């Protein structure tokens, strides 16, 4: 990640370089771009769901998702054929919470992931695609997601090991600035800070965390905030100033256009992913990634 200028480091993020955006360790290891995007998307949602169950604040969850996404970027990043998404997600969330005012225990983290990754009990569509409506089905038996003491000790060591791998991969740079507070400040500056508009802005910013375009790795918080405001204002029919107000916040029209398109595309992308994986689980461990790559290879040879 390219470090931000020293004077603005407290307000800026390290962004992905051109090399990191053009090639990833996973693609070098033979993971197709669409499969990589699907797995990253599922992993970010897994992190979000785990954070909610752990009752962590949204800013901690968002920072963990950014850290999770950064880990896979570039040829020096983590490969999906070496590291399991479930382990990296758990370690990113545990590490982010530990560095905050809301630390959580390894046991709590691992218990939550045991539930979310259970094929019988998980409410997540990409883990348990057939459990679309859990309200009309009996509750799963606790044995299906129970983490024994032996399993806990083993997974605890994996959690600590992957945490250290993430830190080394990111050069121990865990600094993440989120655009949410920036957006609120901009709304007040523009004189249009209403609950409906602010909620819609936050929805776009939270959805952007899951973007296949890696919006949080390519643009600074001020640009993300401006794009979310621009898009949300149009959707809730709030009139902004007539001038090119985004330039006041150091965002040019090209940046704004790219980000608006990226944010608008999230709903369609998420819907397409659910259709794509409606009968199969998204591979979240190395063995399943290898199996999916082999399945695709055999289909190509047979087709």
UniProtKB/TrEMBL annotation:
This is Cyclin-like domain-containing protein. One of its GO terms (molecular function) is cyclin-dependent protein serine/threonine kinase regulator activity. InterPro entries: Cyclin-like_sf (IPR036915), Cyclin/Ssn8 (IPR043198). GO terms for biological process: regulation of transcription by RNA polymerase II.
């Amino acid at each position: 990640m390219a470090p931000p200028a020293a004077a603005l480091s407290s307000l800026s993020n390290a962004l992905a370089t051109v090399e990191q955006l053009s090639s990833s360790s996973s693609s070098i290891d033979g993971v197709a771009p669409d499969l990589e995007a699907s797995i990253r998307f599922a992993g970010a949602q897994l992190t979000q769901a785990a954070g909610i169950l752990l009752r962590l604040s949204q800013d901690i969850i968002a920072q963990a998702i950014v850290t999770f996404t950064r880990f896979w970027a570039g040829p020096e990043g983590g490969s999906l054929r070496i590291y399991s998404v479930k382990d990296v997600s758990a370690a990113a969330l545990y590490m982010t919470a530990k560095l905050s005012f809301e630390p959580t225990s390894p046991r709590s983290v691992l218990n939550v992931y045991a539930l979310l990754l259970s094929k019988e009990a998980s409410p997540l569509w990409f883990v348990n695609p057939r459990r679309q409506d859990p309200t009309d089905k009996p509750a799963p038996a606790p044995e299906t997601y129970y983490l024994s003491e032996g399993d806990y000790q083993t997974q605890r060591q994996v959690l600590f090991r992957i945490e250290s791998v993430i830190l080394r991969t990111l050069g121990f740079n865990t600094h993440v600035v989120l655009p949410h507070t920036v957006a609120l400040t901009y709304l007040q500056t523009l004189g249009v800070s209403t609950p409906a508009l602010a909620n819609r802005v936050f929805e776009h910013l939270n959805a952007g965390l899951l973007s296949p375009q890696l919006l949080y790795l390519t643009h600074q918080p001020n640009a993300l905030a401006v794009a979310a405001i621009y898009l949300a204002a149009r959707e809730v029919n709030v009139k902004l100033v007539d001038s090119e107000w985004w330039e006041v916040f150091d965002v040019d029209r090209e940046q704004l256009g790219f980000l608006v398109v990226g944010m608008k595309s999230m709903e369609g992308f998420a819907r397409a992913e659910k259709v794509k994986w409606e009968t199969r689980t998204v591979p979240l461990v190395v063995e399943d990634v290898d199996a999916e790559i082999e399945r695709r290879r055999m289909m190509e040879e047979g087709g």
